[in-house]
Amino acid sequence: MPFCTHPTHFTAAEFRIAVSGLKYAKGWKPASITLHNTGVPSLAQWMAMGATAQERWGGALNNYYRGLGWHAGPHVVCCPDYIWMLCDPEQDGVSVSCWNHETFAVEMVGNFETGGDEFGWGPGAKVRDNAVTVLATLCEKFGWDIARVLRFHRECARDRHACPGSRVSKADIVQRVDAVLEGWGEPRRAMVAAATPAAATPAIASTTDVQRALIALGYSCGPAGADGDEGPMTLAAVRAFRADHNLSPGGDDAAFRMVLAGAHADVAIGRLAGGAKPPASTGAAVRFNPA
Questions:
Q1: What residues contact 13, with CB distance under 8 A and at least 6 apart?
Q2: What is the pTM of this model?
Q3: Which label site among 149, 171, 256, 286 has the fewest CB atoms less than 10 Å from its CB?
Q4: pLDDT in tens, 156-190
């Protein structure tokens, strides 16, 4: 599985929406989660790599894994500000030799060994909370019990890694994930499970599919609606959606479709719960490449 052409960053809420739209129809589905940490860069090193999240990313993990000659890496990387999608979440990544093919890999930026970065407060706690959201989202998606599926990289004796660091307690992580899932509520999780396979998450394959999803989210594609024509108003709606969801201009079309499908799913689930559709919004700049 290759790296994403343009790694995409999500807030915790956006990541949950994106995962709700994943189909896992490429012949692979994870059976566990493995938690890692970078060690190098530490959080201090990470924050010094650039003024923006994009600069820090370019100066750190993306180039780091590619520099090792790896064809892939962990699926997501949790930073203090965002959750980055590094590799295709619907295919196996590269992270741990003992059970690599079956696991969804979650990397945390920081050195969480004793004497290193704090994990209980400050930027380290923000990394932790983003990681907890990722774990809870995956448990919600697959109906997992986090205590049964969570592994730490250090449990693979063959790799001789201390990941995710001595300051990271599995019991604490499990408790935090369970608390997040409890806050989301069983009824909510049941609606996600019921809606995701069919009504909530249609395939986003054609220009018409894109238009229908955008219109459902409150973006106008012009008076003709979902007519299959990649006209100026459809492109303007795509630009607005990309800007509103922090998708890079000119970025990965697959990432755009994944986030659009997830957002469309969230609206459908909200309707089941009596929620309101989000208002139309505006944004800036880029076109997609319709199939």
A1: none
A2: 0.65
A3: 171
A4: 999 999 999 999 999 999 999 999 998 987 554 45
**Dihedral angle, C-alpha 128, 134, 138, 144, nearest 10 °:** 10
3-state secondary structure at position 8 = strand
* List of residues 6+ apart from 81 with CB closer than 8 A: 9, 53, 126
The verdict on domain 3-184 having CATH code 3.40.80.10 is yes
CA–CA separation, 276 and 46 (whole Å): 39
CA distance 83 to 85: 7
- 267 — phi, psi (to 5°)? -65, -45
Average pLDDT, the chain: 78
Q: Where would I find the H helices in the chain?
A: 12-20, 43-47, 53-59, 61-67, 122-142, 146-149, 170-184, 186-195, 207-216, 232-244, 253-272
Return the structure tokens found at 163.
């990941």
Residue ranges per structural domain of the chain: 3-184, 196-272
